[in-house]
Structure formats: structure tokens, C-alpha cells
Write a structure and sequence with these properties.
81% helix, mainly alpha, globular, single chain
Length: 210
Amino acid sequence: MTLKWLPNALTIARCILAIVVGYTILDFDTRTQAGDATALVLFLPFALFSFVALTDWLDGWLARKLDAESAFGARLDPIGDKLLSASSLLALSITGTWAWFILIPTLAIVSRDVLITAMREAMGNPGTMKVSNSAKMKTALVLGGIALVLFGMAVSALAANAAPYSPNWVLSRGIWLAGLVMVWVAAVMAVMTAFDYVTGLAGRDKEDHQ
């Protein structure tokens, strides 16, 4: 039995699970405020996000391994990535005391992703828009940053009663802060790569009309 359907199935699953990840983040906030969060609830957003993010690499690897690369997969794969980051960032930006620290880079990243997706769809062939190394780095930073923020939130909740500046307190805040810095760096790169995409497309249009 051929497994060539598997890469696209993973990509579709990532699109669906991206919404579930956002829900688990909101549920995390609700449960922690109510004081009835279990260890499973605390670490579920991080664990699920990490698993879904891993499928971004896995579906591409399987597509190449099974010789199952397709136009459908090429079109849907970046959409799945953007759904995952957008769902997670938007959920984070409306939860917690420091949500506005997430909101600003979220607006930059999500706006950029909507713009690039619209440009890809307008061109009708996502394969014609080459993904730059900066864009790949931006994706890695935002996914890695979100993972650290989620892990830091879980550890912080477990260390809620830790004395300020104690090792547990510093560790939990440090993990969260490291993730936040990565998200902010990704936001800056999002703006830069959006500019590169727009100018690159403008250059192509100019060549087409010469």
C-alpha cells in the first residue's frame, strides 16, 4: 500500500491542530486563573505546539522520501505554518498580565504572513516565490520562541509560589523571556522579509512588462 498520501495528510492535520493549540493556550490561562490547572493542563500547550511544529519538517521529509511532492502540498505547507504561529501568538496576546509584550510582535508577524499568503495566492503558483534564508530563519525563530514562551509559562505556573529571585523563579522567567526575545527578533525579520518579497515581486512585474 502506497503512503504518498501521508505528507499531505500531515499538512492538513497541522492546519486543524493549529486551532486546537490556540484553544489549549486559552484554556491554560483560564485554568491557571481559576487555580485548578493540573500538570497536564500546564504543559499541554507546549507539548502540542511542539508536536505540530515538528510536522512542518516531517511532512516535507516524507514528501521527498516517498517521492510525493505535489502542488497542493507546496501551496498548503506555508499556510499551515502561518496558521500555527498566528493561532498561538493571537492566543498568547490576549492572555496573561504581560500579553501586550506579545501583541506588538504578533501584529507584525501575522500581518506579514497574511500579506505573503495573499501574494502567493495572487500569483497562482507558490513555487514561483522562492523562500529566502531570512524567511526560513524568521519561521524558525517564531516557532522556537513560541515554544519557549509556552514552556516558560508552564514552569512559571509550577513555580508560582517560589520566592522572587530564587533559582526556580529566575529559571521560569528566564525561559519565558528568552522566548519573548526570539519572537521580537522574528517580528523584525518578518517586516524585513515582507519588504524583500514585495520588492522582489515588483521587480518581476517590471520585467514581465518590458
